[in-house]
């Protein structure tokens, strides 16, 4: 009886020791901070994915634009899907203390952060190449202006907001790269030799937008002749000038994107180390 009671006390002590070890090894603050952080990240990613799918379905086009960089809906779907999967790994990994999911979340987040950092550095060093590439993207967007309603709204918003028109060659880009606005004799469109209404300068306090305000330009119209009716400034240069004037704002946005990523990396690494210590691994991460 005495021997049995001693064994029972030893078992209780061992069980109590394990419970104490479990409490001290894994910090609830780290675990649930990571869970809450990734849960909100997961919700935002799900919202982006839902908006992208809704926008894509609403178009109702069989032959809709499938160019990733020319269709905002596809961009939202791709980014939302990847972020949703990554958020799922972090959220479930933190809740279930799953080392595999947490390591995957940490490594992917670290890779994305490094790629963004390298991309920013290369973009600064090779700014001419970046400007050329952006110019090509703008030309592609102008070419597909009438093919995608989301892209059309994005271009119109940009031209009105930055008071600009076209890409590298200004309003002439619409005559060169869009089949509805080009000045060729084969083009029978009413929009021939014109530009979208978003290029037009507002006439006083107009209540009703004149969507035909950019029509009927001469094929050889010069910027001097067009300046009274439309914006002649290139949107690429307009956006670049805005960026130079708002460096502190862009820096704040960059920090706002970088800090959550670093926070996710640090929290997931700490939690993995604590879980491995809890399970008896001495080397940690």
TrEMBL record:
<feature type="transmembrane region" description="Helical">
    <location>
        <begin position="29"/>
        <end position="54"/>
    </location>
</feature>
<comment type="similarity">
    <text>Belongs to the tetraspanin (TM4SF) family.</text>
</comment>
<dbReference type="InterPro" id="IPR008952">
    <property type="entry name" value="Tetraspanin_EC2_sf"/>
</dbReference>
<dbReference type="InterPro" id="IPR018499">
    <property type="entry name" value="Tetraspanin/Peripherin"/>
</dbReference>
<keyword id="KW-0965">Cell junction</keyword>
<feature type="transmembrane region" description="Helical">
    <location>
        <begin position="107"/>
        <end position="126"/>
    </location>
</feature>
<keyword id="KW-0812">Transmembrane</keyword>
<dbReference type="GO" id="GO:0005737">
    <property type="term" value="C:cytoplasm"/>
</dbReference>
<dbReference type="GO" id="GO:0046930">
    <property type="term" value="C:pore complex"/>
</dbReference>
<dbReference type="InterPro" id="IPR000301">
    <property type="entry name" value="Tetraspanin_animals"/>
</dbReference>
<keyword id="KW-0472">Membrane</keyword>
<dbReference type="GO" id="GO:0005886">
    <property type="term" value="C:plasma membrane"/>
</dbReference>
<dbReference type="GO" id="GO:0072659">
    <property type="term" value="P:protein localization to plasma membrane"/>
</dbReference>
<keyword id="KW-1015">Disulfide bond</keyword>
<keyword id="KW-1133">Transmembrane helix</keyword>
<feature type="disulfide bond">
    <location>
        <begin position="164"/>
        <end position="199"/>
    </location>
</feature>
<keyword id="KW-0325">Glycoprotein</keyword>
<protein>
    <recommendedName>
        <fullName>Tetraspanin</fullName>
    </recommendedName>
</protein>
<dbReference type="GO" id="GO:0051604">
    <property type="term" value="P:protein maturation"/>
</dbReference>
<feature type="transmembrane region" description="Helical">
    <location>
        <begin position="74"/>
        <end position="95"/>
    </location>
</feature>
<dbReference type="Pfam" id="PF00335">
    <property type="entry name" value="Tetraspanin"/>
</dbReference>
<dbReference type="GO" id="GO:0005912">
    <property type="term" value="C:adherens junction"/>
</dbReference>
<feature type="disulfide bond">
    <location>
        <begin position="165"/>
        <end position="183"/>
    </location>
</feature>
<keyword id="KW-0963">Cytoplasm</keyword>
<dbReference type="GO" id="GO:0019899">
    <property type="term" value="F:enzyme binding"/>
</dbReference>
<feature type="transmembrane region" description="Helical">
    <location>
        <begin position="247"/>
        <end position="272"/>
    </location>
</feature>
<dbReference type="GO" id="GO:0046931">
    <property type="term" value="P:pore complex assembly"/>
</dbReference>
<keyword id="KW-1003">Cell membrane</keyword>
């Amino acid at each position: 009886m005495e021997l049995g009671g001693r064994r029972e006390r030893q078992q209780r002590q061992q069980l109590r020791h394990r419970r104490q070890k479990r409490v001290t090894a894994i910090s609830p603050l780290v675990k649930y901070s990571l869970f809450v952080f990734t849960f909100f990240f997961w919700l935002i990613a799900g919202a982006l994915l839902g908006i992208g799918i809704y926008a894509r379905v609403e178009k109702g086009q069989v032959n809709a634009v499938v160019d990733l960089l020319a269709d905002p809906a596809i961009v939202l779907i791709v980014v939302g899907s990847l972020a949703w999967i990554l958020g799922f790994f972090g959220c479930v990994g933190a809740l279930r203390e799953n080392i595999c999911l947490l390591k995957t979340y940490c490594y992917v987040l670290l890779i994305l952060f490094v790629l963004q950092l390298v991309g920013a550095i290369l973009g600064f060093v090779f700014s001419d190449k970046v400007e050329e590439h952006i110019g090509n993207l703008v030309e592609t967007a102008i070419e597909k202006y009438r093919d995608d309603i989301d892209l059309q709204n994005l271009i119109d918003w940009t031209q009105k907001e930055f008071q600009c028109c076209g890409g590298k060659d200004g309003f002439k880009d619409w005559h060169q790269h869009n089949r509805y606005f080009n000045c060729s004799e084969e083009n029978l469109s009413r929009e021939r030799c014109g530009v979208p209404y978003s290029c037009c300068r507002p006439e006083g306090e107009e209540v009703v937008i004149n969507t035909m305000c950019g029509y009927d330009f001469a094929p050889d119209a010069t910027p001097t002749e067009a300046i009274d009716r439309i914006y002649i400034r290139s949107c690429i240069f307009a956006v670049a000038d805005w960026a130079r004037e708002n460096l502190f704002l862009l820096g704040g946005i960059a920090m706002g994107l970088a800090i959550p990523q670093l926070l996710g990396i640090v929290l997931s690494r700490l939690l993995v180390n604590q879980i491995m210590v809890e399970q008896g691994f001495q080397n940690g991460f």
